[in-house]
Fold each of these.
Amino acid sequence: MTARFDTILITGAAGRLGTELRKGLAPLARKLRLADVAAIADLKPNEEALIFDLADEAAAHAACQGVDAIVHFGGVPLERSWDSILNANIRGSYHIYEGARKAGVRRVVYASSVHAIGYHRLEDQIDASAAHRPDGLYGLSKCFVEDLGRLYWDKFGIETAALRIFSSFPEPADRRMLWSWLSFDDCVRLVAASLTAPRVGFTVAHGLSDNAVKPVDNRLSAHLGWQPQDSSEPFRVGLEAKFPPPDARAPAVQHLGGWFVDLGHPDDEASK
Amino acid sequence: MTARFDTILITGAAGRLGTELRKGLAPLARKLRLADVAAIADLKPNEEALIFDLADEAAAHAACQGVDAIVHFGGVPLERSWDSILNANIRGSYHIYEGARKAGVRRVVYASSVHAIGYHRLEDQIDASAAHRPDGLYGLSKCFVEDLGRLYWDKFGIETAALRIFSSFPEPADRRMLWSWLSFDDCVRLVAASLTAPRVGFTVAHGLSDNAVKPVDNRLSAHLGWQPQDSSEPFRVGLEAKFPPPDARAPAVQHLGGWFVDLGHPDDEASK
Amino acid sequence: MTARFDTILITGAAGRLGTELRKGLAPLARKLRLADVAAIADLKPNEEALIFDLADEAAAHAACQGVDAIVHFGGVPLERSWDSILNANIRGSYHIYEGARKAGVRRVVYASSVHAIGYHRLEDQIDASAAHRPDGLYGLSKCFVEDLGRLYWDKFGIETAALRIFSSFPEPADRRMLWSWLSFDDCVRLVAASLTAPRVGFTVAHGLSDNAVKPVDNRLSAHLGWQPQDSSEPFRVGLEAKFPPPDARAPAVQHLGGWFVDLGHPDDEASK
Amino acid sequence: MTARFDTILITGAAGRLGTELRKGLAPLARKLRLADVAAIADLKPNEEALIFDLADEAAAHAACQGVDAIVHFGGVPLERSWDSILNANIRGSYHIYEGARKAGVRRVVYASSVHAIGYHRLEDQIDASAAHRPDGLYGLSKCFVEDLGRLYWDKFGIETAALRIFSSFPEPADRRMLWSWLSFDDCVRLVAASLTAPRVGFTVAHGLSDNAVKPVDNRLSAHLGWQPQDSSEPFRVGLEAKFPPPDARAPAVQHLGGWFVDLGHPDDEASK
Amino acid sequence: MTARFDTILITGAAGRLGTELRKGLAPLARKLRLADVAAIADLKPNEEALIFDLADEAAAHAACQGVDAIVHFGGVPLERSWDSILNANIRGSYHIYEGARKAGVRRVVYASSVHAIGYHRLEDQIDASAAHRPDGLYGLSKCFVEDLGRLYWDKFGIETAALRIFSSFPEPADRRMLWSWLSFDDCVRLVAASLTAPRVGFTVAHGLSDNAVKPVDNRLSAHLGWQPQDSSEPFRVGLEAKFPPPDARAPAVQHLGGWFVDLGHPDDEASK
Amino acid sequence: MTARFDTILITGAAGRLGTELRKGLAPLARKLRLADVAAIADLKPNEEALIFDLADEAAAHAACQGVDAIVHFGGVPLERSWDSILNANIRGSYHIYEGARKAGVRRVVYASSVHAIGYHRLEDQIDASAAHRPDGLYGLSKCFVEDLGRLYWDKFGIETAALRIFSSFPEPADRRMLWSWLSFDDCVRLVAASLTAPRVGFTVAHGLSDNAVKPVDNRLSAHLGWQPQDSSEPFRVGLEAKFPPPDARAPAVQHLGGWFVDLGHPDDEASK
């Protein structure tokens, strides 16, 4: 990788994936601007940090100034109350896209999620042309930002690669992750490919490592130039010993979204 | 039509289409509960009025209590500032769906819009399986509510018929409306069919009268039992005399969204 | 209609639809050969009767001799025990196709059924390219005969029009029939069109009158030259008064197969 | 129809369809410029005639000067020698499109043919997205001009409606025409709709009247605003009495192209 | 592979593939119950044998008792008389599925065949959504069991992986097998993957090794987690030396079913 | 590879790819007949040369006599004047197909081009079923020959593999070639596979090496038995250092055809 960018903004830079992106994307840019609502540890010389809430419009706009590309991984990463989702993911992402537009940024790489399509089933073998089927408020906010990216491409010429992250963890941690796991390295390579592909337009890709069981089809994003290189197979024996076989008829096994489909409404949960 | 419902809630009841729905849906229910942020004139004995802002969560939830079905036509009907769209259309619609869930309402008929798919072209001949391509913040909010309806069906069993209204006016008023017009009577019949169809699940339909030029395909909503009966043809001679022929290469002629695709960002406009 | 055939064999001629076909197809042939396991009443001069069980191979073959076309409506018309279905529908239909092959018959019109696709949902809007999804042993036997017809076309050049009859009764009798009804006249016209179309090859068509709610798409059989002319609408008010509104989430309302999807295994039922 | 054009050029104006177009399109333009290689009879005051061979580049270019739209129906109308097809249909049509480009003409309506897709079968139920499958050199030249029109739209912004004419004659003349017939009136209405539709881009439409048997799907050209209004049904009894029933397995019955698929190579025929 | 099952029933265990499955599946279960109509040689300690005809309903039901999963490879493996096919494949498979239902078995892996789709052509590049096109009575029985599996999933919640075996032999034995070969190891791995995949529902997969020429698409079964690992390439030179190049126009070369499409009716053959 | 052919005719044998094919295809045939309008250097013992213009019908026909297969790579390889394209590519290719027909040749491998589909975009991810969208006269002539091949297969039983060559050069020479490059070895292997596949019928394949960015889908030609083995990745660093990053919104970056879409009409250019 050559340093083709001057400055890349990474939102959510203090998070699990943000930390990996700091390392992985460093060769691509002279400088990484890191944004998060939480403090960011161990700043390197090529990094600068901005601490703000995505719901803060002015701060978000300011963060986009002077940036060549945006890797937008910030926001609430799980099912949460409507207010949290609304502020961090819906309003926050809108602020980032508006910031991009005002600052003339040309490409956004967005961390969408399997939960934007969580109610499709494994055997549906969907590809990126499948309809949205969110499995909760979190997934709904991901659908919103995908559509926001589509609008900003059609109307304002800002490209978006919407990467539907499945389960990106250091290791697969349960039986579902045997198929849904995205290794950190594959995740970083996917973001890097999305930043450097010659043409993105508005592209949706599914973020899964090269696991044996493949329940979605990534054909429609092959122009990103990404092929996953890791696999969950080395973890199979251990995980199968640890967890009993799943019931194929259970909603959480049936659907791409896993246990998210078993969740009730987050505001009900909160009030319990 | 027989009065199969006890109470139907109509939001946006003071609006252009709301007024038509009051007349047209009266035979379907014992009582119509009318909601709007504006005053509602000429209440009939079968009507009751609730005046509130959809952004008011408590009022919206209260309006849904004791209701059999919801016809959700309220909200901002045009491109407007982000704050207006966010409050009236995104937050407001969320409040209505949450109200429906808490009150056990089983079916929602939602006024989506052509502007959810405004960047598709006429010759694309899309059907309801086409991807969202909003042409502005207004259309983006319509996409959001469609996905919200999808979620509430998949997770909570509340049906939604999302009706993408094209141009519903007393008469077609320009050359584009020769194909985009939806007569008031066809509109009311479409809502009535959506309320009474045996099975809706989550269904998207395109609201257009039986005009000569047909740029979208309604095949995937044929189970709603609706066939448009009006046509713009009687208005053709008059409109062609009044307006010059369009340039087929102009973005506003090329795309389903019409002149919405020519609009810039509403917040830019506002600041001018 | 002109009498283009010398002799048409109608199986199931004593049944509900067979009786209609005797009247309706008379103009198409010099002679109708009527077959059934039950006695056939009121033979007309242009008719001859053969009483035999379709499971009787020799009798079935004999019935096909000297015939120009076969309208195969015989067999068990409802969910029944495996032995009944096996003998009458699977073995019986095989006997008829073998009879056709040995006798050089060129075209078969077969009464398939909605129950070959009963587990598809109304909002799936399937067409004739959808996969088989039978809703019971009866539907399974219909799938078998469709595949049998496909084989006899590909290998032996015998054409089949497989007509998936929905609900063909004198009048629609319940709320489901408001969409699933096939009037007797439309049914007879569909069979006549299938007999006289210039080219059938192997074609699947869905037998539904021109009812308001249309849950399947007949596009792929438009070369048969059939358009339904009747509608269930005149019966709507009466039926809606008689039966309560359905629950859209009930399996029998959700699926094309209606209450067949609620049935258990017929052999279990029999043993109760 | 209102006279929205100043001058329309009609090529092939002395031919069978050209004569109809002269009458039918007169209300659309102040003047019709008629071109043919043969003499054109009975010029009306609103008409002017140009007699030249389409292979004559300079004459073809000159004919396009000062024209608002072109109805290109000229060329060899049947299977002929390669040299004839090459000169009249391939070179000739190229001259017309180049003429259009040089003269700034914005829309061309082209008489393509069923023979561009003649090797598809009736039961394939193709639509305008099906691949080219020409059934002879004539059909091959029609494919060429469709692709030429596509190029001139993509590169030069000249719209084309490519109308695949099936069998346009005063009356259906054989059994095949019971499904392939395009009445003169429907043909003229199709050309007029193609000239006046708000947006054509590059659109392919199938030119068939509203006959009972419908072997192709016109869904993808519904934005032209054309619905056929005539039918071959009144001619059925007469034609069925005159011609024996077809053999459904004969190539000429099986394929859309009819007897063209039985033709050998035209240059072989010529040398016999 | 870990022994996740207590007992797996393998039908057809004395056959060519059954012998391989005994070896290959042993690690997956504590015990293999082997069923065949022929004697089973060399029973191992982890095996038990049941000798019965699949047409024997009671024996088939008994064989399913106490079983965790069924690998149903029994029945007639080639084109045979109708009576043989009917008894072994149609009635026999029905007995196995009923046995599974009565015994509460949750998953069946079924040996379907290329001959269920034998009349599709290589260049059609079909996937698992293609229609059935059996090439004989054998293939017809495979279609029947696929539909039976679909029914038992939709109605009774028993999963089926229907594996369309192409040519599973120790080595490719003719030119066709250069593309149709399925190595024994790949076959065993496919069955093992089908037994252990988290979710099967009703899934159709095509059983072919990783040969150079790939005439079908296995995209729709990627959730089984199977990738073939063997290839026919090492056998190419030998086979091309031994057999002349095929005629690409021969029906047996054109179609997936190979020489099965050249067969007449098996009962005709038998009577010669 | 074994020498399965007696004589293969290679047109364009003096060109860049022709030279590679002489080396690569030598093992497949006893003799290579080389044709070109230019002199052919360094004839080997297994080669014979014919120097003629493809527009010379008699010479082209003569070249096809006694040939087992034709590798048709001759003609104008770039955008040129209409007359050049017409004579070399349209008339010339027609002469070759007619030569093949008269000489009884059974298979043609044709060098089509990305420019037959140059106006599709990278993110469209088209496959071989996509419509022609030529990006110039050169691409238009490639579309013509594809349709010619389709005709000669449907009507005369001559197979064609139409290989859409993207950028076949010794090395990728600019940023676009990082995705469009086809190595010489992959090109030769693709031609060899097309010559030896058991069944080609009429097949379109896309000629691209196994580069990281993959903007087209080759699924529909998997029966050719070709997998590219080279990749542009080793050239990435050098090319990215040499050329600036592209603008994703530039037409030449957006479309498959690259800078061809920026070209005006070749006859305009010539007259400058």
Amino acid sequence: MRPSGRKLDEMRPVTIETGIQRHAEGSCLIRLGKTEVLCSASLEERAPPFLKNTGQGWVTAEYGMLPRATTTRNRREAAAGKQTGRTTEIQRLIGRSLRACVDRQALGERQITIDCDVINADGGTRCAAITGGWVALRLAANRMLKAGLLTTDPIMGHVAAVSCGFFAGQAVLDLDYAEDSEAGADGNFVMRDDNRLVEVQLSAEGAVFSREQLSNLLDLAQGGIDHLIAAQRAAL
Amino acid sequence: MRPSGRKLDEMRPVTIETGIQRHAEGSCLIRLGKTEVLCSASLEERAPPFLKNTGQGWVTAEYGMLPRATTTRNRREAAAGKQTGRTTEIQRLIGRSLRACVDRQALGERQITIDCDVINADGGTRCAAITGGWVALRLAANRMLKAGLLTTDPIMGHVAAVSCGFFAGQAVLDLDYAEDSEAGADGNFVMRDDNRLVEVQLSAEGAVFSREQLSNLLDLAQGGIDHLIAAQRAAL
Amino acid sequence: MRPSGRKLDEMRPVTIETGIQRHAEGSCLIRLGKTEVLCSASLEERAPPFLKNTGQGWVTAEYGMLPRATTTRNRREAAAGKQTGRTTEIQRLIGRSLRACVDRQALGERQITIDCDVINADGGTRCAAITGGWVALRLAANRMLKAGLLTTDPIMGHVAAVSCGFFAGQAVLDLDYAEDSEAGADGNFVMRDDNRLVEVQLSAEGAVFSREQLSNLLDLAQGGIDHLIAAQRAAL
Amino acid sequence: MRPSGRKLDEMRPVTIETGIQRHAEGSCLIRLGKTEVLCSASLEERAPPFLKNTGQGWVTAEYGMLPRATTTRNRREAAAGKQTGRTTEIQRLIGRSLRACVDRQALGERQITIDCDVINADGGTRCAAITGGWVALRLAANRMLKAGLLTTDPIMGHVAAVSCGFFAGQAVLDLDYAEDSEAGADGNFVMRDDNRLVEVQLSAEGAVFSREQLSNLLDLAQGGIDHLIAAQRAAL
Amino acid sequence: MRPSGRKLDEMRPVTIETGIQRHAEGSCLIRLGKTEVLCSASLEERAPPFLKNTGQGWVTAEYGMLPRATTTRNRREAAAGKQTGRTTEIQRLIGRSLRACVDRQALGERQITIDCDVINADGGTRCAAITGGWVALRLAANRMLKAGLLTTDPIMGHVAAVSCGFFAGQAVLDLDYAEDSEAGADGNFVMRDDNRLVEVQLSAEGAVFSREQLSNLLDLAQGGIDHLIAAQRAAL
Amino acid sequence: MRPSGRKLDEMRPVTIETGIQRHAEGSCLIRLGKTEVLCSASLEERAPPFLKNTGQGWVTAEYGMLPRATTTRNRREAAAGKQTGRTTEIQRLIGRSLRACVDRQALGERQITIDCDVINADGGTRCAAITGGWVALRLAANRMLKAGLLTTDPIMGHVAAVSCGFFAGQAVLDLDYAEDSEAGADGNFVMRDDNRLVEVQLSAEGAVFSREQLSNLLDLAQGGIDHLIAAQRAAL
């Protein structure tokens, strides 16, 4: 019934390959079916100005899409001279999500920037970016611990994200582009490995939804998150 | 226990005054406690290019904050030469939310732009903008119906929005700035008058949350939405 | 004979309501007929770089127009990414005009920014902005004196502005939009309460003018300024 | 008593050399003492959109300053990515001033752009730009008449501009930079050869002024304008 | 003697993997030692305006570098709001180089955009972009021929590019970053498979050079180009 | 056979007039046939940040074209809000070329900016800018030496540039616009007075070329450079 033939609660195959960008403190390529996102973590020994003298650090994110990640070429944001509203919204989401597992005091007055660049887009790029971004962040923290820059691990558990929504009237997990473009309501769920929610975003451009339907999506999301966290563990 | 002395499920006083911007097809000033947002609806007899020859119209929104709506002056975005990520994120939310009550076929190939400008900010400006924006939209549709531009009402019920979150460990309704800046998790809930959800956005920058807590917030939100829809009815 | 039925030397009703933006050091809403401009004064305890170590302060202004202040919606400058030439010209005029009543030595190394945002436009917005901006500035100085930040009053008398021009061949005071869009020559006159001129700007896009005509406009302007200064006094 | 030794009502030497930019429909280099401005007129066989199907044309102007026209290098606006408020204000003034001598119906649906680029700045650049811009415009109209593009001359008389102000308490004509930077009030006067005023701009950043003083400046300006129009005649 | 231990005329290992971006009409990942560039070709059935009604098509290129392709993170151009001078210079070079093998009449009124995004940078990224860009272009043309969009092959032979320069006083082929950052003169040589030169760019920031030295570099370049063209053939 | 009637190896008349911009530390107007470029050198007693505490200085360049330097008016870059790719490419070339004759240690931690603004364009503007820019730089250094700011001359010999290319199948020196727009391959050659090459840029948009042809152009270039250096000497 799903265009891909998947079951309602079946995710696409996930693989995470680390060490793609050799200069980065941490990096990986996450593949979620045909969606591919390159994630890197860059350490800067200086926190942003608003944290000056607080002893706390920051984790932020930037998101981009290569022009031909999509069916038809999308305009290069660097050439257009500005990032779209969609881009800024996504990169703010990635940053907030990853900060939910960071002990910013333990990190100290440093900044880690997570860059997420979409190589191929087939739905779910922001969720892949969060899930892969966590791996890059984890690798960067490992390297800092090993180098003695940190004494306490600033990463408190895993963070991963999955999309769920209604396709052809059914709640489905991990929508691909064919489903996403037809979906009624469509949401993104960010969770930690302690089953706590980090972010819930559910939008009904096509069809409004009930609390029961939100609950169904949360059930599906839980299963997807477990799967993604297993993939994160496997990659490390 | 709340800084304002309000009960956990108590909203701030809401008033909606219409006809503020006399040139607009619809306009109002919504006051949510000390938060004040001016909303207007502008009709353009031309839909955006991507709807050409579809017979469908569009509703979009723009959001701004006067430089001294806030405790310290914030930089004028027109002078800075760009809108912040926060602004674009909010105006996308307002547009999506209002489209959830619009029959775009009944609207025809037209665009209505909802402008929401914050005069005074004390928390909850995006929710006030959605709730007031709906009134401006409703007034514009009324005028179009009266003028015979439309034969079918394109507005399907009310849309309103309220924020809920955790303050000092308790779920509270309609956070003001003092609460918002201290809140653990903080969410925005957009609903229609048929009790269906339009948008749920819950973020945990400070503290992650459980499904039970999300459920508590949804309970509170329902009460707030009823209150706001009553204020919308009173204003018309 | 005037579209509004006013006499040649009759101003529109003027009201000035203070305390509109509660966070600002001073603020007011000035209404000049159907023209409405929100003015605020924001104090910053730091002068601009070019005044570093001079002991002198600065007063500057920014001007904006809400998108639907006008008959048809005008594009939001923040979305366009730049201020128009008209906007920059007006805000430079407001700043220069207000500095003409400021003892910058008495102000000390501080900056006061006057924000003028047009809620409804019906001609004369820049004059309303100067007249209302002075009230915001006066209120801010009062607060600084009261708080002991200043020992000498840095405000030397009132500043107000009015437009005059030729409509249907006659010199008229305080042009509204219907007159302004048809006017031959059209000017703005900024004066102090000691009857000294601060700024004279007279442009003849449609019809050139003689020195006698300039003199007629100056006569009219004097009466208007007296009226506006009385309104400023009443508001305080 | 003036730094240059000039009399109070004495202009600097004026020369206007035509044909500097050989591709332009009209061009000249105007020298006003040590101030040098290159002016060109470019014809485009298309009026701006707002004049479509009105049968009327347009004259507009752009102004720039070479980075090292000034004592210390000023930043190249093309590199900065925006024109300053001063630049937009000046180019709007030049356009308005020159349109005051143009019969836009006789011009037909065409646009002439006057470019004014300052090679060397020593005060009075905007006045030199208007005076020289008129010569470029006149030359372009001559060429169009000769080529049979126009049957009626669209240029109605001369337009020229001069600055006057108060230096060391005295009204002086044609301020150079040494005077301008010390001037109390400082104004620009644009006039036609029929002695009618086109634009009066008088600003008092340092010292407010009386109507008598404005009158004194107008007397001085009249003499200066006569001198400049004679120079325009000599150049053609 | 070279940091990498390579011989003076020895290139780094080259591999070209095709089909990386599945939506693109042609794509590949070219690896030149540790330098990795993703290249794609996007077809648009419309030529740029200046070719309207000429029957000719266009090939253009855009270049970008992922923020962490380099040792320290470089600022994302989309966030900065503009492309650097280096970027525009490189993308113009890529476009010119590839057009040298294109029969634009045979292509017809279409545009092919070559996007080159650097995943990892270790010197020679612009040469890798040209060499890989040619493969993407070739694949896109193949697909167009197969689909019957074209009847004549618009690609006339191979184009490839290599860098040569002086390191430690010796002429060396294919400089990596360690060599490039120390090089005296450093050049890029673009050639076709008929041994004709397409572009020669040789710059001497550190050390000027003689005609004999230019000749030595051209000898080296010839060998490198042969090697790269063999890699292009192997990839197809 | 050449449109201008010149011999294949004949340059256009060259004149260099110094002292054009009196505020600049050095300036000249270089005329290369009908091409005219105004060049100035501006000294700043501060090196760019990346040279902080190295004891070394910097020479950089900016390039612009007046809107009506060309046959049809080109858009003012300051109004467009960005420099074109062509402009940034040219100004980077000018900067690199001039740095090839500068002893940056002898210059000390200062920056000299060379501004090159094209008054009239008839081909070869970038070569004229380099040749004239060197004169402005030399004059600025002379002034610094005279003023005792420098004890060692930081300028090591002359730098000049000339274009050569293939017109109607023949190698020609110093292409004017009529030739340039028809040229097969077209290159720019920057050399010092010790006959060493500083920069070679040869592009084949229309027709690829052989090493023999490159050699022919180098022969022609040498003659042109000698001529230009003689003109530089004559101007000083």
